[in-house]
Amino acid sequence: MLELQPDLAFTTGQAERLLEASFGGPVVCSRLERLSGGLVNTVVLLEFDRAPYRVVVKLHRGAGHAFEAEARALEYLRTQTTCPVPRVYRTATTADVIPYAFLLLEYVPGRCLDGLRLEPAVRADIETQLADVLGELHHHRGHHWGRIADGGSSDSWVDTFTVRLREARAHPRVRERLEPRALEVVDRAIEVAPIVLSGSAVPTLVHGDVWDGNIIVRRDRGRWRLAALLDPDLQFADPEYELAYLEVFDARREAFISAYRRHHESRPGYEQRRLVYWLHTALVHVALFGDEFFRDFAVSTATAINRSAAP
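Below the sequence we write its predicted structure tokens.
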């Protein structure tokens, strides 16, 4: 897991060097605005005096391999699917032009859905649009499981995801932030997770990190429209992994589920399998942020897994 760096210092001079190296010729940068929603990296909107006039740059000090993976994922989505994503202008995984690794992206006008107050009918419309986007995305199938950036080379989704669970559990901050008794419950759940996940679907292309903070919407001709999905963790996975992740952050997605089921039927046992996906999300959040909600959620979810797997 990457170190959290949401507040890196970034100057106008650094921005102009980056823009000149990326677009050629002298550039005058007139605006730097830190954007909300950047939890892992520093995210900045830049305005300057030549086309494309606005861009977004993501910054991280140290190893920047995640930017290379994100750039590949965005280009795959843009060229191989109808999923709306920003264009990649340039990425650098080392501190060459500026003292950070960076990912330079197209600016997509709009608002982050997270924290945006909308009428229920408007929100339901956006959920329906999201369901149509993910419904199309989930029609893309592969021959192996795993992340696009890693080549998607695994023959077993159960093995792939169990490894991720164990890696999340092994993070030092998980051991620090969960009580010994809670860790015992989590460990038992991880042991039975392969049984719960047995009978997975075919390898399906999923965005991998869809939540309100990664959804951009904009008002267009009187209607809020889904403008872009950000920060993909693109992979061939069980599509239920994507659906479960959405429900972690908001279980009230009736409009989404209704629209999504027009594209894909449900499979029996989803309510049990989603618990395993929820446990992974909980452990990752415990490691990165340590918030009380996910500490409690990890324990309650692990307890439910153990109960569901009991003879």
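The chain has a mean pLDDT of 93.
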